[in-house]
Design goal:
- The chain is an alpha+beta fold.
- The protein folds into two domains: 93 residues, 3-Layer(aba) Sandwich (Creatine Amidinohydrolase, Chain A, domain 1); 248 residues, Creatinase/methionine aminopeptidase superfamily (Creatine Amidinohydrolase, Alpha-Beta Complex).
- It has seven helices and 20 strands.
- Strands 7, 8, 10, 11 and 20 form a five-stranded mixed β-sheet that branches. The protein has a five-stranded antiparallel β-sheet with strand order 12-19-18-15-14, with no helix packed on it.
- Helix 4 packs across helix 5.
- It is elongated, with a radius of gyration of 24 Å.
Amino acid sequence: MSRRWFYLIPVHGTPTKLVHRVEPGHLDSLPGVKRTYSAWHELAVQLKAMLAAFRRVAMQYSPNNLIFYVGMVDAGTIEIIRGVGHEIVSTVDLVAQFEAALSDEQIHAHLRARDKIDLITAEAFREIGRRVRNGGATEYDIQQWIMQAFLREGLTTAGDKPVVAVNEHSSIPHYSPTPEHSSPIQNGDFVLLDIWVKENTPEGVFYDITWVGSVGEPSPRQREIFDIVGRRSRPRRRYRTFRRLFGTEDLWVGSRPYRSCLHHRQRVRRVFHSPDWTLDWSSIHANGANLDDLETRDEREIIPNTCFSVEPGIYMPEFGVRSEVNVLVRAGTAEVTGRIQTELVVI
């Protein structure tokens, strides 16, 4: 599009479209009455007329840009709407309802992906052990083995390949090996697997986990860091609540162990994010509430039938530890949908 357009959806009644006369058919796939404009001053007149019946207007705007992936409306447009006398409120809760709440079929699809991926993850660690004993393997080799397992099981990723990271590479949260840049996996190495996939169907829903282990016995330091991340900070299997839950609440991660990591001056990653379990299988992170009071202050309600990952991590120069599970929120409960890693995998 080379011209501005607007689409007004009233609580009751017929939507209104405002498009430029150069591109008049842009919103023809949507219902509603069409208005057109050419000159900038005509745009202002048309906006004022179409908004005349409404005092408040919800837009993809986030006060102080706290929920920055929802705050998509530019400051100038905000000024225009306020300039014609309207109060602007944020659509962050509305966006969460449409993009993050799962249907019953989507929840079942998530659980089916879980069953397959928990088995593939366990077998991937065993495959690493077999290859190390029989001549060796690289990060890329294991990544490709996992991708072949996805194909056999009718699964697909979000475009990126799973993370197979050894030693210092496990401290790079979004690391991905390539044929040209891939470390060998050897005895004594620390290994991180981050796997996210869904069924290759329109209703497919992602299952996203991270597990860590060592080839041979872990070092005392590796056990210590995993104990902080994987044991003291892991969520309970099931959490019952009879009140509304909000993104800023510290319900699953122990705040004291997490803060203790900070004064080691290590790089500590954001604690939570909300996976995109919408129907767009090209991406994974949705616009539901993040259980996060670090990178963002997300005060939105965690609405029933939303699912998000919990992934505390500590990243040091020599290795990084992350433990990731998925949590499904229903009315009155929140529960981990898959296996919880309670100790390092000894490969």
